[in-house]
Amino acid sequence: MSQIYDRVALIGLGLIASSMFWAMKRAGLAREVTGYARSEKSRETARRIGLCDRVCDTAREAVEGADLVVLCVPVGAMGAVAEEIASVLKPGATVSDVGSVKRGVIRAVQPHIPDGVHFVPAHPLAGTEHSGPESGFAELFDNRWCLLVPVEGSDPDAIARLRALWEGMGSNVDEMDADHHDLVLAVTSHAPHLIAYTMVGVADDLRRVTDSEVIKYSAAGFRDFTRIAASDPTMWRDVFLSNKDATLEILGRFTEELFALQRAIRTGDGDHLFDYFTRTRAIRRGIIDAGQDTDAPDFGRGKASS
Amino acid sequence: MSQIYDRVALIGLGLIASSMFWAMKRAGLAREVTGYARSEKSRETARRIGLCDRVCDTAREAVEGADLVVLCVPVGAMGAVAEEIASVLKPGATVSDVGSVKRGVIRAVQPHIPDGVHFVPAHPLAGTEHSGPESGFAELFDNRWCLLVPVEGSDPDAIARLRALWEGMGSNVDEMDADHHDLVLAVTSHAPHLIAYTMVGVADDLRRVTDSEVIKYSAAGFRDFTRIAASDPTMWRDVFLSNKDATLEILGRFTEELFALQRAIRTGDGDHLFDYFTRTRAIRRGIIDAGQDTDAPDFGRGKASS
Lengths: 306, 306
Prior knowledge:
The structure is a homodimer.
Chain A: E1 5-11, H1 15-27, E2 30-36, H2 40-49, E3 54-55, H3 59-63, E4 68-71, H4 78-85, E5 94-97, H5 103-109, E6 118-119, E7 122-124, E8 145-148, H6 156-168, E9 172-175, H7 178-205, H8 211-216, H9 222-228, H10 233-242, H11 244-267, H12 270-289, H13 301-304
Parallel strand pairs in A: 1-2, 1-4, 2-3, 4-5, 5-6, 8-9
Antiparallel strand pairs in A: 7-8
Helix pairs in contact in A: 4-5, 7-9, 7-11
Keywords (chains A, B): Oxidoreductase
Domain Prephenate/arogenate dehydrogenase (chains A, B): 6-295
Protein name (chains A, B): Prephenate/arogenate dehydrogenase family protein
């Protein structure tokens, strides 16, 4: 793989940024990668583990002279960061981001992008429940999708170059408009996360089922929910507030459907339940066939933990 | 590990029974294991892959002379099977089961247990989304909990022997009464499964988000839900119908909580969301510390599928 950018700046050094650094290094995609994190502790950690070629004490310092600037901060912080770095952006540079919501990020960031600088929003569909500068690894994006969400007037060359970077980091790349992106993600990610958070909160609340029992006996099902519900609170708060309409629409459909199943349980309508559960099995098969998950039973966890 | 039973009969040859067979063989816990499945195809598969020392064409034949009979059929079928085998049960034998609901199984099975035969219900908290005779593996129960739910008058020696069997198959064993079991499982397993089924069904229904997109872009979150929602439809229909009261109670609490979070999204109450999500993170940490899951990011899936 050959070099795609001379200098890349990563603003925010969490799971995604740190994985991007290791993935870029693995494939030699950038000559120098600078990094900035708001917290001094994160900057110190980054320096200690060799995350970024140069860790800077301000976002402006990290951005100066960069050909690509990637905003890797929570969605709610994107606008302020864009405003802060705007005046030092190099003419001809590209600004991108990795936010899970696109319409809100575009609304917050685009007004700060100077003429002659390209803005190409992006969203890598990859993650784990861990966060922080030490959570990244080079393989995070391998065979995962990265969605580019060009805005009106995005420069085709700038888009092509960013696409090459993500492909170089192992991703498959697609393009999509912002509103459609936000609806698809509300279904596949945002609503499921809120539901998982809710269920884990309910379990925690129930006084008759002691915490230790819930933890001790958390078989498949709840265990998966707790993994999802362990994700970064700041990131997810911002996601829900920024993708309010689509999330609330999906949650409305969800409760409607849940009430129908609750009613089937209450009235003993086994056929309704059986048909519903049979239908949901097919979509799982599709996900495995599409290469987006492993068919190993229980993710091979039974064996891994033995 | 030394032999615990001379002859064990497994009625039903799905994921749990087939895993029990391989786990018993691994540790030499039984001299002979017979098996029976209602479907001829499952019996043929079992014979082909060497599942059970002897595969029988009737449940009664499998049960004759057995020291331990384990009912591994869906919860809704337990009563009929117990009635069918009752008259051939060997005096002094133990009947057990592996059902996910205990009060309903006890109600259905206990009336058929003859005098002089012991009844010790059990529930191994282990599973994967796969089913059928080929889905089992010896390590399924390793370091997982198995809950014994003795009924009034269960013989202490019969309980101790069954405990030794489960420990020999790799499980940790606890005892619990039936009603408490059913409530704990409603929280940790039954309600989460229904919720996952619902969310996957909603995604499938939405015409604006095409199926292929939902599948293609199913990032963490939805992917985990689809795994849960791929579980055996018959088994889960029976679970919900048999554990109706506890499941409906938990679902009621769940919707209450979900509505509060939806309201926080609608009104833009970020603090409520942040505090809630911070609280749920702690319970995940507890599960990892309790050894019930791996701390590997995303179950190591990012690497496994690359």
